[in-house]
Amino acid sequence: MRTFEELIEEAEAADVAGWGFDWLDGRATEERPPWGYSGLLAERMAHAGSALDLDTGGGEVLDLAPVLPPRTAATEAWPPNVERARERLGPRGVRVVETGEGPLPFPGGSYELVTSRHPVRPDWPEIHRVLAPGGSYLAQHVGPASAFELIEHFLGPLPRERRARDPEDEAAAARRAGLRVEELRTARCRMEFFDVGAVVWILRKCVWWVPGFSAARYAGRLRELDRQMRAGRPFVAHSTRHLVLARKPASAD
């Protein structure tokens, strides 16, 4: 295996734009939830007349759908991802809109289908507003304490933060916004990291995991992980996910 310094240098130089994780091939693994979100997304997209994909990243997941509705839009807040998404999805006729704080820039009742894979923060009133009557919201959300074994290795115990993103709390918020939650499924998936470069790369990409992360700042913690991995023991964490399927009632009834 390359030296600690070589692994760190490589990971710090690697591109982290977009929402693809191919750089981790052979260096880290993560189990996938049993429901197969990409397949569910593709099926819904093929039968919708209009769709909006929220927090699309670089458009990687949406682009997996073989058929897209005649009118499809996507939103993304991080400028490097916006450009990636436009390059990837523009040729397919998808309008990619850069967004920030505040309401979604679409009229009420605009879309039959709203989707999202790992939304930053689901805004249930806005999702309800942009859905057409009878329209559906299909999404895979990050659940509570996801990857917290890794996060707490750097930050220490985070008992309050572990309670965030509870699926039942999110379902209750969706109902308060006027949506009918038709399905809510949860999963806990094993993650393994095999070299310290994979850890540096994922923390550069998921900047909210360890705010202010840099390899120099956390060199001691990284060396601990490096010694463990060189001894043949991958670092194990667990991601949590929940699948949400909700519907806007077709009428006031």
Automatic annotation (TrEMBL):
Pfam families: Methyltransf_11
Chain segments annotated as transmembrane: none
GO molecular function terms listed in the Swiss-Prot or TrEMBL record: S-adenosylmethionine-dependent methyltransferase activity
Biological-process GO terms, alphabetical: methylation
Keyword line: Methyltransferase, Transferase
The organism's place on the tree of life at top rank: Bacteria
All copies of domain Methyltransferase type, residue ranges: 52-138
CDD domains: AdoMet_MTases
Protein name, entry field: Class I SAM-dependent methyltransferase
Native organism taxonomy: Bacteria, Bacillati, Actinomycetota, Actinomycetes, Micrococcales
